[in-house]
Amino acid sequence: MSTVRKVPMRKCVGCGEMKNKKEMMRVLKTAEDTIILDTTGRKNGRGAYLCFSGQCLEKAVKNKGLERSLKTAVPQEVYESLKKEFEKFEQS
């Protein structure tokens, strides 16, 4: 008898779709209140998930999805750095 492994699902804070955890990008708030992009998905801190598209990032900025998920105000500089990181991933 084979066992069925549970696939971890996460909700995108931009579009609201439920997807496989590995298909999404994790934005992380560390203990020092810095907001970074967690490519490994294993760093300590409070995380929010986004699809690998710039449109979802724009939606998350517009509806304040990242601020709600991370439970903190997100400065504009952080959004700019996240946009640059997303552009790198979309090109590759």
UniProtKB/TrEMBL annotation:
It holds the Pfam family YlxR. Residues 10-83 form the YlxR domain. InterPro entries: YlxR, YlxR-like_sf, YlxR_dom. Signal peptide: none annotated. This is YlxR family protein. It comes from the Bacteria.
